[in-house]
Every structure is written in C-alpha cells, then in structure tokens.
Write a structure and sequence with these properties.
The protein has 148 residues and is an all-alpha fold. Helix content is 72%, strand content 0%. The longest helix is centred in the N-terminal third of the chain and has 32 residues.
Length: 148
C-alpha cells in the first residue's frame, strides 16, 4: 500500500482547499495590480480618481493576505482584515455617494434618488455608514484584544 493511498479523505480535501486558497490569493494580487495600474495610467474606462483605485487594490491585497493566512492554518479572528476591509470599503462607498458622476448610476426605485437626483447617494451613503461602523467596531476589538 502506498503512502498516497493511506491518506485520509480529510487530509486530501484540506490540501486541496489550501491550494485553492493560494490560487485565489494569487488571483487577488493580480487583480490588485491591474486595478492599481488602471488608476495609475488613468485608464479611460476607470472613472474614479487614482486614490480610489489604490484603495480598491488595497482591499484585494489584504484579502490575498487573509487567504494566505487561512491557507497556512493561522486562522485567527480576522479583526485586522475586517478593520482594513471595512475601512477601505467605507472610503469607496462614501466617494461613490458624494463625488461620483450621477450619470453613471440609475435606479427605477424613486426612494433611492437622493438630493440632486443622484440615485447613488442614499444607498451608498448608507453602505458607507455601515462600513464605517463596522470598521470602528473591528478596530475596537483589535485594540481590546491587544490590551489584554
């Protein structure tokens, strides 16, 4: 009987899961590079400031780091990831709510149309508020766990 045939199904599936997580992390890094490059060269299809592209790339990078952390078996609480993820997401959603071109957003639900007729303002403003609250909470949890 070979060593390969003696492996338990649990071990094989764990190894396969780790490979998938590493592949996804690599894809996130490639995506982050593409997004940052689009912001750097001011790609015509990317209608946001370069800073927003860099924040989106940061979200991809920390997601890749969290995937590598999970694949390595260091599960942890993920508070550091959630803090950066939600903080960066708040920046993006508030930018969409306050400064994005309203012509790039449409809605057939009249209640979503905020002041000035921008349907992005209300839902993305709410999302920005939620992300801000979650990032504050995750920051508090992270700080609290370090002070113990």
């Amino acid at each position: 009987m070979t060593l390969e045939s003696q492996r338990s199904p649990e071990t094989v599936s764990t190894g396969a899961l780790r490979r998938v997580l590493f592949i996804l992390a690599a894809a996130m890094v490639v995506g982050a590079t593409g997004i940052a490059y689009a912001g750097f060269i001011r790609a015509p299809g990317f209608r946001a400031p370069a800073a927003i592209a860099y924040v989106l790339a940061l979200i991809c990078i920390v997601t890749a780091a969290r995937l590598v952390e999970l694949a390595s078996g260091h599960i942890g609480t993920g508070d550091w990831f959630a803090l950066v993820f939600f903080g960066a997401s708040a920046v993006v959603t508030f930018w969409i709510s306050l400064w994005a071109d309203p012509r790039g957003c449409t809605s057939s639900i009249s209640i979503l149309t905020g002041p000035g007729g921008n349907p992005c303002r209300v839902p993305f403003g709410i999302a920005g508020g939620i992300c801000t609250g979650l990032s504050i909470y995750c920051g508090w949890r992270l700080l609290h766990s370090k002070l113990r």
